[in-house]
Amino acid sequence: MSTYWTGKRVRLRGIEPEDWQASMRFDGHAQHQRSGDVLHPPRSAESYRVRAAEQAVANPVGDCFRLAIEALDGGEPVGGISTHEADPRAGRFAYGIGVGADHQRRGYASEAVVLLLRFMFGERRYHKCEASVYAFNDASLALHRSLGFVEEGRLRDHEFFAGRHHDVVRFGMTAPEFAERHSLGEL
C-alpha cells in the first residue's frame, strides 16, 4: 500500500518512543552532529528515551513539525526532517534534515525533502522554502543544488564551533520552481 508520505526509498512518519536508540546512534558521530548543528555533550540513554517519548505525543504547532525518515528496505529510522519558522502570512517556511552517517548517499535525503516540499507547497499553500547549510558541508550543498534550491546568500562567520567561525549558505526554492522540477502530486 502506498501513502502520500511514502516514496520509493523512504517513508516519512511520526516519531515513535522506540526511535530513541536511532537518535542516540546518530548523535554518536561528532562529524554528523557538526554537519547540521553543533557538537553537544554526551547525554544519557534515559534522556533520549524521554525526548523521543515527548516528541511521539507532541502536537504540531501550526505548520512546524518533526518527522522520522524510515527506510523502506528494512523499516528502520535513518534520519529526521522538520519544518520550522513557518509563516503562513508571508508564505514561507524553513526546514532541516539529518540522515545518519551509516545511511547517507542512498537517496534518502533527496526523497524525504521532495515528499515534505510536495506537502508544504501542494497542500499547505506555502510559496517558498528556505534552508541553511554550513559552507563546509559539500554533500548538503550538492543535495540542495540538485533539488533545485537557489543560493540566495552567505552569512559570513555566522556560527562558531571546532575552534573557529563558519559561513552559512542560505538557499531558497519557490513553489513554482519546485513544480517545474518535481510533481506536486495527483489526486
Automatic annotation (TrEMBL):
Transmembrane segments: none annotated. InterPro entries: Acyl_CoA_acyltransferase, GNAT_dom, Ribosomal_N-acetyltransferase. Residues 10-176 form the N-acetyltransferase domain. It comes from the Bacteria. It holds the Pfam family Acetyltransf_3. Signal peptide: none annotated. SUPFAM superfamilies: Acyl-CoA N-acyltransferases (Nat). PANTHER family: FAMILY ACETYLTRANSFERASE, PUTATIVE (AFU_ORTHOLOGUE AFUA_7G00850)-RELATED (PTHR43441:SF2), RIBOSOMAL-PROTEIN-SERINE ACETYLTRANSFERASE (PTHR43441). This is N-acetyltransferase domain-containing protein. It comes from Streptomyces graminofaciens. The lineage of its organism: Bacteria, Bacillati, Actinomycetota, Actinomycetes, Kitasatosporales.
